Amino acid sequence: MSNNVEREVIYLLAVVDLIRSMVNRAMFDVGEGDDTNIFFRTSAHHSLFAIALVDFLSMTDAAKEAPVPATPYLRALRTITARPSFNVNGSVADLESVADSFKSWLDEKIEVDVWLPTIGKQLLLRPTRRALHCIAGNLTKHNFLRSIGVAKELQHLLASAGAPLEMRDVIQAQGDIYEHFHDNVGLYHSSAIAEFLNNLLWGIQTYLQPEFERSWTQDRHESCSYSYRYPAGLTDPLARACYWELMNRVRSGPIFQPFTISSSFKSRY
After folding, report:
1. Within a domain: residue 197?
2. In this structure, how many other beta carbons lie within 10 angstroms of the beta carbon of residue 189?
3. Contact 204, 12 (CB under 8 A)
4. Whole domain around residue 234: which residue ranges?
5. 28 is a domain residue
6. Is residue 165 part of a domain?
């Protein structure tokens, strides 16, 4: 893409659609009250959430044919908030705040006390939250023969905890670690992550609302027909298609109203 506005609309549509694949009523319910938590429909929905989350925390494709430069989705959002194309009277402020807060939360190291029966060791692991969810998501997605990269990361994490292991022993221990990272800590974190993701959607909504109001045009002769006026500089066909879909997402709004997760789901790990 040749300019900032074209890259921005492509990244924003990709972010919105990826988050909506995680934060929707088919995936989970939100409890009642001011301080609540989420309830996955089934354990399979928790697994789907973990897989989509690791995609969100990963890089976009780096192929030369890709329409935008490779970057993690959250970094793309933070780059957008640093140089926003559609900021009107500070409309980008909420998005900037939640993107920065989510990044800081993910980068914080936590302590996870684990018993690994396959190697007979009790260990105190210290991953960042980001690393924990990337490991859990990749182990959810891949068979052990497709997760050697994860095993190497776990080998380093275990060595840092005082348990240097051969690769074959790390592979054997993956199931034990997965139980702690996905079933325990991952499930505990899921409510807080859902709140962050929903707040990102609302931050994007607030940021783009003035642009939607400028752009949306109703047909004078057909009440169900409408169009959007493209901003200056948006000439690439793919970027224009993404802009149209992005404005439609703003038109429909986020699936959930803002919700606040109970502090009891934020005080551990």
Report:
1. yes
2. 23
3. yes
4. 4-41+71-107+191-265
5. yes
6. no
Report the distance separating Cα 29 and Cα 39, nearest Å: 5
Domain membership of residue 212 (yes or no) is yes
Q: What is the pLDDT of residue 14?
A: 98
Please state the domain count of the chain.
1
Q: Is this structure's pTM higher than 0.90?
A: yes
Question: Which pLDDT belongs to residue 62?
Answer: 86
The tokens 């800081």 sit on which residue?
104
Q: Mean pLDDT, the chain, as a whole number?
A: 94
